[in-house]
Amino acid sequence: MEWTEIMGHVGAVLSSITFIPQVLQAWKTKSVGDLSMNMLLIVITSTVVWLVYAFSLNLLPVIIANSIIFVLSAILIYFKLTFKEAPKK
Predict the structure, then answer these.
(1) Alpha-carbon span 88 to 17, nearest angstrom
(2) In terms of residue numbers, what domain contains 38?
(3) N or C: which end of the chain has fewer CB within 10 A?
(4) Which residues cross the membrane (predicted)?
(5) C-alpha to C-alpha distance for 55 and 24, rounded to whole angstroms
């Protein structure tokens, strides 16, 4: 494996884990009021675009990273739609 492939896989892992703390926090607290639905929709749309691009060029690190980000973003959208917002103080 060449160093560029290694860097691609490291980048994929780092990109993929960015949403894990937010998903865990939202699950634990059942609170997503501060999350922007617009941001989540932009992220999920961009991952779809990246996936189309990556599949067309067979770029495994990009496919892996964006697949994971897609799933985590979808989970956050699900939480945003199902968790009740805390009452405003």
Answers:
(1) 31
(2) 3-82
(3) C
(4) 36-53, 59-79
(5) 29
Q: Is 89 inside a domain boundary?
A: no
pTM of structure: 0.84
Residues 34-67: pLDDT tens digits?
Answer: 899 999 999 999 999 999 999 999 998 899 899 9
The DSSP line for 17-80 is HTTHHHHHHHHHHT--TTS-HHHHHHHHHHHHHHHHHHHHHT-HHHHHHHHHHHHHHHHHHHHH
Residue at 88 is within a domain: no
- Please, which pLDDT band fits residue 87 given cuts at 50, 70 and 90? low
Element of type H or E holding 16: helix 3-17
Q: Structural domain tally of the chain?
A: 1
The domain spanning residue 69 has which CATH number?
1.20.1280.290
Cα separation of 49 and 40, whole Å? 14
